[in-house]
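Protein modeling request. Please complete all fields; requests missing the sequence field cannot be processed.
Requester role: graduate student
Desired output: 3D structure, token encoding
Chains: 1
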Amino acid sequence: MRTYLLFISIFLIISSCGKPPREVEILWDEYGIPHIYAQNTNDLFYAYGWAQTHAHGDLLLRLYGQARGRAAEYWGEKFLKSDKWMWINGVPERSERWSKEQVEPYKSMLESYVAGINDYVKQNPKNIDENFQVVVPITLQDVMAHVQRVLHFTFVFSQDDLENNAEDWNEQRGSNAWAIGPNRSASGNTMLLANPHLYWGDLFTWFEVHLNLPDKNIYGASLVGTPALGILFNEHLGFSHTVNTHDGADLYELTLVNGGYEFDQEIKTFEIDSIELKIKSGDSFQTELFVVKSSIHGPVVIEENGKALALKVVALDASQIFKERWEMATSTNLNEFEASLKSLQTPLFTVMYADNKGNILHLFGGQTPKRPPGDYDWAGVVPGNTSETLWNEVHTYEELPRILNPESGWLQNANDPPWTTTFPEEIDPNDYPDYISPRKMGFRAQRSARMLNDDDSITYDELVAYKFSTRMELADRLLDDLLDAASTANDEEIKDAVRVLKRWDRTADNSSRGSVLFKHWVDDMNFPDDFALQWNERSPTQLPDGLKDRTMAVHRLYGAAKEVKEKYGRLDVFWGEVFRLQRDSLDLPANGAPGDPYGVFRTSYFRPIDDYKQTLIAGDTYVAVIEFGDSIRANGVIGYGNFSQAGSSHRTDQLKLYSDKKLRPILFYRKDVEANVVERTTF
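Delivered output (683 residues):
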């Protein structure tokens, strides 16, 4: 008997060798950030989909419904415009093709992510609004559709671009990113700043997550609904993105003739597709037959007065974006990282990179069309009646603006062109086609470059402080001129305004007095026309400067002072008293201001909620500061919290950090995670 039991024990031991039990852990920290530990990629991404649904289930399912082009069928007419945009641009059909083009092991990873989403909804129906459960089951095709909706048909080209809402839209797609090399770092270690500025909600919502395999430790953030991290670091390297001054789409004007359009002195016929859209109305449905026309350039997006505009967008065949992003995430050195980028599967974005070997890199990334020569307005509308304007190729990786380890020791991007990424300049815009990027530099970018250029030895704590800088670069250019012009005025209103502005610290901090008055004055002016000296690329960080009409500027100061006094009762009202952070039951003072024209690095955009207060709607979202030393040092914050689900404490638990301009520790190592676990989920 003893011999038999010994035999059974040995058999069980041998059978289990190399086959550890299937166990996946999600360790949730106090801020609702999931630290996922798995033995293989499929289990890892299953837990990733599960965790993202736990944090953002209602939002995630709505986004998939919209990407599917059936949101009006699920939730009513207010989504019809969004649905039509998907069908016009062929997203449902293309997403089916992209799904079939996925290759292993990435296809299995994606399918595991989808399975995690579906299983969460099935197992936790009470946690998901029943209105959104109609979208389940989610498919791989839905993920592909969502990626296209976000990247190609929102970031590259959106409906707002058609409807003259570009200024509002620009508020939703800004970012700052810095990479600091060893010769500029006080510790001798490279450092990275990741700081996207997006709308606080909808498809722009970030989800912070920590992914761990036995040989991989990856930390970062993804946009809700996407399985690929958009910003990340591992033990070797890290990268962030900004929305670059990239032009990856063109509108072609077509002349309509006999139901077709002119092209190379011939009449071409449109490809026509009729789509039946259902629209929910109460407990019943209406049906609308929607016709999509496509030319050789792309789909018709506007048709009126005998003309039509057709849209051509890059990277519609770039179906391997998840493969590219996972290779970026698992790279261990610069060569591997750049090799992962060369397929150009991501349609746009600046790439800002740093690693533990001392390398820093800036790439003007994405696909940029190889546009034909000629005097065409590529930023506007291009004639579509000739093949001479039709492009079919994009620039290769080697043809894109790139800077590696600059002389300055620093790289920055604040949505400015690649030419102004560092000083002295490392790349010459004359070496590139004019359409690659414009020649300009806004005040936020100038403020960004100034802080880096003025500090020869940047500490980690200084980097954090610079990130939160609310100093207005515009005030440094204009305030002295304005105060000098107003100093001889006899009007008491202007004298009071001068006293307030002289004492002002030129910031948009919570407790700043004078910033509200200055903002009202700026908003009444007409910049850049009202500058005495306009911007010039020979002095990119010194111009524009000064007031063109000092008398008029003083007159506008009188009007601004009167308006502020009437609205707020005093001229020196606190910035944070007027500009607020409001979410659920919290109402906190805000800091920061729009990056341009004010030139504030800590970017915040507001919308009036009444005659007195404004509330933040966009700006700093996910922030991470990373130092690559013998071990990783990192801090971060995600202002609106890591959950959007109603009732969760994680909707507001980081809002006070935003108000106080503070970061929390990023828990990168297992021992630190274990010391801060508040909940465990195992599979």
